[in-house]
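Example with several molecule types.
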Amino acid sequence: MQNKGISQAVIGRLPRYLRYLGDLRENGVERVSSQELSALMRVTASQIRQDFNNFGGFGQQGYGYNVDYLYTEISKILGLDHEHSFIIIGAGNLGRALGNYLNFERRGFIFKGIFDMNPELEGIEVRGVKIRRIEELEGFLKENPVEIAVLTIPKTGAVGLVDMLVSNGIRGIWNFAHVDLDVPKGVQVENVHLSDSLMKLSYNISRYNGSKKK
Amino acid sequence: MQNKGISQAVIGRLPRYLRYLGDLRENGVERVSSQELSALMRVTASQIRQDFNNFGGFGQQGYGYNVDYLYTEISKILGLDHEHSFIIIGAGNLGRALGNYLNFERRGFIFKGIFDMNPELEGIEVRGVKIRRIEELEGFLKENPVEIAVLTIPKTGAVGLVDMLVSNGIRGIWNFAHVDLDVPKGVQVENVHLSDSLMKLSYNISRYNGSKKK
DNA sequence: TAGATTGTTAATCGATTAACAATC
DNA sequence: TAGATTGTTAATCGATTAACAATC
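Resulting structure tokens for the full complex:
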């Protein structure tokens, strides 16, 4: 599997393919053609074949794709064939909600710790993991290598933490703080800007209620 | 303000412009050129001018853009100049986290109700709003018109609710359920698929740790 | 006026779709 | 073998960037 220069547009579609393939697999479907998947997912069959071919041929002429095999291969591409440790920084509502979300564990994302500035939260358990004080974070990372940091703190705090996280081995930041983070090359940031998403929804509603134009 | 056929790529960038303009405004900056904004935001000045010009000229030759005016105009485009009511369906960790998030209110998104299947949650307050049973939802909507439904329930429940929501006046769905929703034309869906986002991060980390290719 | 910077057209780049030869 | 469907090249479409005339 070589993956030089695959565009993020393609990568962004892989989780959705995985979801549909997982459903098919659960329903006992063994093979699927790009045509069938196209009808199901409402994307062109051409795009499906192009997307898969970025990673080498997963199908077979005259047959289509083996669901189970394709599912496994896409999982591997997405790095879901091995575990990823993560910590959550910010034990507010959102941080605790993410800590409690069991499906991440099912995908191999292992919840290692949760930290907060507020000393009153110390010791409260989130899915079996005790909230620690933010002061302990750096020491914790030195003792326990962690791959991913989930930032669910206000933006002011987030920016100041990045350098420390990176120099203590964090490879990826799942950023819920409403700010653009500056990280060195080789460290990945995936942003989830909820308010941006809500604004897009607001735009689309307003546009439709107003001028009715598509 | 006419907005026929603006691409979602452009719309997706507007909230980020708004954020930077808000910061500039707070710092007392009165005018900004596309060149300055370009350096700040790390997008091309050309893109900035093209984006803004989709909605008519906001700037002035030789001067640039008035920060305050531009901020206001983009707010209007995004529909942030009027209020939007919303309810949350699913009072689990994520639903309650979103209910508690104060910044939405600041943007004009008004929290009207929160519903859950679990009768044990009934009456618990989330930011002053009592959790209601899902059975009350339809009646509630008939009494209280609501624009946006936030779906923070498992996917099985989500699909079955959509028709009822739409026929009771819901105009937009902010969908956190991990499923693609089918809605009639004129109803907007904005998906937040957290696990998809996490998989993208996983891909980018794995790619980098592995073959090192950019 | 001269300088600055937009608005806008033209050029480029990348992503999507169509077409079809290869092959199971 | 004949039929089906991929892998892949070519065509199209859309989005981004560059260039520059218009104008404040």
